[in-house]
Amino acid sequence: MSNRRDFLKLSAIGGSLGLALSHIKSISAIEQKQPTGPIVVSTWEHGLSANEAAWDVLSKKGRAIDAVEKGVRIPEGDPKVRTVSLGGYPDSSGKVTLDACIMDENMNCGSVAYLQNIKHPISVARKVMDDTPHVMLVGEGAQQFAKEQGFVEEDLLTAESKADWQNWLTSGQAKKLINIENHDTIGMLALDAEGNLSGACTTSGAAYKMPGRVGDSPIIGAGLYVDNEIGAATATGMGELMMKTVGCHLVVELMRQGASPQEACKQAVLRIANKLENFEQFQVGFLALNKQGEYGAYCIQTGFNYAVRNVNGEQLLDAKYLLEDKI
Ligand code: SD4
């Protein structure tokens, strides 16, 4: 309250928005605890190798935004990771369509959705952020932009993904468009040596989704959100649930109100559970990192894990889950 009073007093005296804003900045800088050093966290086991690439940037005092872009390019280029770019599961018509977004410490963000034939959608999203006045490009426009920026088109449907899709078509499962498996989107959050936060999220989306479907992963606030004063959050799982609750923005706002990263993730999962019917049929996992370098995760079902890399080395941790907790 006294901060607000000081702010109002100062605005009146200064009479300029510039002075008011610089005052806000100095208050929050005083209140923030010093960060404990660089750290990167990311979803699922393939986060381990992604984190290693990000750590290469962070350990050399590089920027968090460069770390997260470099990090998530690893699963994007790995055909064994079946829900991210190369080798990702296609939609129900056999097309691999990609969603990705990236956000830095200054609220800059870039996003692509329904992008095809470009192996590193996260780098296209970064270009949207850096080189256009827009936040999001989709479909053919995104592909055209990528080509103009020098990205090379290639077929991302590997023989293995094609065979799995053909099997799915003939197996009688083709009516079942939703599942709790086949989720391994990479969401990554990093805090750099300067104490700045950034995040990235990239996916080929839910396996065998309807043609044209876009999930949460390229939607700022749903699949990723970063507020450099507070913290960052990313999500994995059935994107529609995160979109309906603007889940990652919610996680960051809960941290703003004082929740720890894990508690904020749990509250966002509880919001889904309390508001959305049939939530128990789906998996959703949130992962959060705050300005102090504390992290936490929470999900609906068992099975979601996340990777952590800092000066102490690497770890793969199991997230706590709701259906065990019985609300
Ligand atoms: C989506 N959230 O498209 C993504 C899928 C996912 O791990 O997270 N897979 O809904």
Question: Could you explain the architecture of this structure?
Answer:
The protein has 327 residues and is α+β, with helices and mostly antiparallel strands. It is built from eleven helices and 13 strands. The chain is globular, with a radius of gyration of 20 Å. α1 runs antiparallel to α2 (17-31), α3 packs antiparallel against α4 and α4 (64-76) runs antiparallel to α5. The longest helix has 15 residues, at 17-31. The two termini are 34 Å apart. It has helices spanning 2-14, 17-31, 47-58, 64-76, 121-131, 139-148, 159-170, 239-245, 247-256, 261-275, 322-325; strands at residues 39-43, 98-103, 109-115, 136-138, 186-191, 197-203, 224-227, 231-237, 284-290, 295-299, 305-310, 313-318, 320-321. Mean pLDDT is 88; it is low at 1-32. β5 and β6 form a beta hairpin.
* Total DSSP helices: 11
Strand order of the biggest β-sheet: 4-3-2-6-5-1-11-12
Bound ligand species: N-hydroxy-L-asparagine
Shape: globular
Query: Helix and strand succession?
Result: HHEHHEEHEHHEEEEHHHEEEEEH
Q: What Rg do the Cα atoms give?
A: 20 Å
Mean pLDDT: 88
What kind of sheet is the major sheet? 8 strands, mixed
The parts where pLDDT drops under 50 for at least 5 residues are 1-32
